[in-house]
Amino acid sequence: MVESRRTLVDQRTGFTHTLTDTLKQYFPQALQWFAGETSRKLRAFLTRWPTLEHLGQAKVDDITAVLRTLRCRKVAAAAQELVEKIRTAVPLTRDQAIIDGYAIYAQSLAAIIEPLELQIAKYDKAIAAAWAVHPDRQIFDSLPGAGVVMAPRLAVAFGTDRSRYQAAHDVECYSGIAPVIEQSGNQRWIHARWGFPTFMHQTFHEFAQASIPYSAWAKAFYEDQRERGAGHHAAVRALAFRAITRPSAHSPSAGSGSSFVSGQTAISTTRSSTSRH
Fold first, then answer.
1. CA 202, CA 211: separation in Å to the nearest integer?
2. What does the domain layout of the chain look like in residue ranges?
């Protein structure tokens, strides 16, 4: 379930980036006026007024009605402010062929993104219901930076079949977090793994990154890796590796808070990834 949700999120991300690129070709003001590419407000206005010219012909009452439908605050003042911006705006291009072509494409993208948002919301509701009764919910919810998205994903990654993995290294290798060490004579080469379950790998990598603002230990470890010359992703991967390998070894001293994994035995050598909900 969580993996399918991520697939929809990736599709939404791709379409929203494409929408941004499209608007930059003929109507860049829309990205500034309507809170960016992921905004529902942006899609609502594009659906009704796909170009600066169309928006310039809109009545204040119509703009107010749309803002009210979106449950915006102080809609009258917001509508008037938008009208003033429209009045002084300068078109990026006046080539009607370019404007018409991109306008219909922007409307198409907005129409695709909206149902994706609804389906992702359905997944969020279903995952929340399953997560509420998951036996390991409290453990994963306690991890710094896990949140409502990453905690269920971590639970799925480790699973409930305690017999699948015999050691933490098994999890690291299977997920692609552990590096590959090749050695021949006096030559030694360490590199990232090329084959692994993508979603599981993403889960550990993204959780490690999400933990940095919430865990002093994770932040210190990450910064140390960067100072040693590692790139961003290499440093995050090293952080994920260390947390899976020896979580309790990196707990802070008593009374100083939680480490990256809070010393939880759940994220240790006995977890698995066979559970799916």
1. 14
2. 2-129, 137-250
